From TrEMBL:
Mode of membrane association: Single-pass membrane protein
Domain of life: Eukaryota
UniProt-annotated binding residues for heme: C451
Species for this entry: Penstemon smallii
Protein name stated in the entry: Cytochrome P450
Required cofactor(s): heme
Residue runs in coiled coils: none
Length: 510
């Protein structure tokens, strides 16, 4: 008589098949039950949905560029669309009208962020101002960001001490180079230098330890974008262990934590006891040690805030300037008009200062059009804290992720004339701005959870962009024509160019 072990060995294939079938059936039931729960709790009327597959839901319809795939779906199913991404119902918002409902009319109701395990792992249990749940702790961190780190006086000081100095150094480097340059790489290093100098007082691109830290941040952001399987299908989370994503993220998180611990300890151990607030870490450690009047802050929160500043500040600002230079090269008439304005105002002077930038009205509309055409972060997440009736639909609390597709909103034909064209002139006689009050243009978000670094990011981008356009004429290598420039996007939290922007500075004006 065969033993149980022998029977299992002889029927291993059948056993695995039946096991898989049972798990699949149970999974399908759970997803169906979850969907049923969502539908019944939605008081009869829910937003329209595209047809979905069992278990997968609509995830197969999301392309490797989600902002574009979701935009295409919204054209068929409307500006408020319900998708099923694995286990998670996801409400996709794709119009200015719908974004105003979320970010103004019902802002408090939608002021939470969804709990995502991968973000928790990267941002110290969501102790940063971007991902932390709405509540007292978030209010405390936001107050620190706005009033201690990013107030008007501090932003002006950082522009003078970091942005102007580092930009001038890069302009000199470009001036000395007669070969085609990788402008994408130059811009990333420049933004990293500015951000690290503001945060730590040190340019970490100049040390091996610092470069490893910055590379780890870029890798972790790429992984965050990829680690969707474990979030959408919890029963398939093991895939991230098999494909190495989990181990890679664990390594990056460990290395980053060790780096920030070392930096904090170095600052705590330096001679003197007072933190004068010259850098972000200086200010935060002053709060941590109780040397300034403010609510308490933990060491993990300090690390999470510093990570916010580095991660959010570098990638989005670099990609915005990169796309801006791309569009100017593709549109020589816009480039010439902008250069004429800047060079006329500067009248041969070398250094661009704040009072000069204030006079450059065409520069401002060009930057608005860059933000519209290439939003630095095309997808924002929110979550309902309570049941909301919106545009005739009921959205139950905590039942779904709210996904604002700023790319779709910025290209909404109801709000914009010829939205697919790069046309800065659309803003010349328009009061529309990107500061969160016009819901057809929200590159930094809006409402309570608008990006607290908006002023610093916008000022840095404006200054760098003006210098690049003022001080050089630009062309593509090997006589390539502007219309031949590759415009393929690279997937990610901040959508940059897939191929680096290789250009030649043909003439220098300083």
């Amino acid at each position: 008589m065969l033993s149980i072990q022998q029977l299992l060995q002889q029927n291993a294939d059948k056993f695995q098949y039946y096991t898989f079938f049972i798990i699949l059936s149970a999974t399908y039931f759970l997803v169906w039950f979850f969907n049923k729960n969502f539908l019944t709790s939605s008081t009869k009327k829910i937003p329209p949905s595209p047809p979905k597959l069992p278990i997968l839901g609509n995830i197969h319809q999301i392309t490797n560029l989600p902002h574009r795939g979701l935009w295409d779906l919204s054209k068929k199913h409307g500006p408020l669309m319900l998708l099923q991404l694995g286990c998670r119902p996801t409400l996709v918002v794709s119009s200015a009208e719908a974004s105003k409902e979320i970010l103004k009319t019902h802002d408090l109701s939608f002021s939470d962020r969804p709990s995502l395990t991968t973000f928790d792992r990267v941002f110290y249990g969501s102790k940063d101002v971007i991902t932390i749940p709405y509540g007292t702790e978030w209010k405390n961190l936001k107050s620190i960001m706005l009033h201690k780190l990013m107030n008007g006086r501090r932003v002006r000081s950082l522009i003078t001490s970091s942005v102007e100095d580092e930009t001038a150094l890069v302009m000199e480097k470009i001036k000395q180079c007669c070969l085609p340059i990788n402008l994408s790489e130059i811009l990333m290093v420049l933004i990293q230098d500015i951000t690290c100098k503001s945060a730590f007082g040190v340019k970490y691109t100049e040390s091996e330890k610092g470069r490893k830290f910055l590379k780890g941040i870029s890798e972790s952001l790429e992984l965050l974008f990829k680690l969707v399987i474990g979030e959408s299908f919890p029963w398939l989370a093991w895939i991230n262990k098999v494909n190495g994503c989990d181990s890679t993220l664990n390594r990056i998180v460990k290395e980053r934590d060790e780096f920030l611990d070392d930096v904090i300890q170095e600052n705590l151990d330096r001679p003197g006891t007072m933190f004068r607030g010259e850098t972000f870490i200086d200010t935060l450690l002053g709060l941590y040690n109780g040397q300034t009047h403010a609510s308490s802050i933990t060491k993990d929160s300090i690390k999470a805030i510093l990570l916010d500043v580095i991660a959010a500040g570098t990638l989005s600002s670099a990609s915005t300037i990169e796309w801006g230079m791309t569009e100017l090269i593709r549109h020589p008439d816009v480039m010439k008009k902008l250069q004429d304005e800047i060079r006329g105002i500067m009248n041969g002077r070398k250094c661009i200062i704040d009072s000069d930038l204030e006079k450059m009205q065409y520069l401002k509309v060009v930057i608005k059009e860059i933000f519209r055409h290439h939003p630095p972060v095309p997808l924002f997440f929110r979550e309902a804290r309570e049941d909301v009736n919106m545009m005739g639909y009921n959205i139950p609390a905590r039942a779904s992720i709210i996904l604002l597709n700023t790319y779709a909103i910025n290209h909404d034909p109801v709000a914009w004339d010829e939205p697919e064209l790069f046309k800065p002139e659309r803003f010349l006689n328009s009061s529309v701005d990107f500061k969160g009050f016009n819901f057809e243009l929200i590159p930094f978000g809006s409402g309570r959870r608008i990006c607290p670094g908006l002023a610093f990011a916008a000022a840095s981008i404006e200054h760098i962009f003006a210098n690049l356009v003022y001080k050089f004429d630009w062309a593509l290598p090997d006589g390539a024509k502007p219309e031949e420039l590759d415009m393929t996007e690279k997937p990610g939290i901040a959508v940059g160019r897939k191929s680096p922007l290789l250009v030649v500075a043909t003439k220098c004006y300083f």
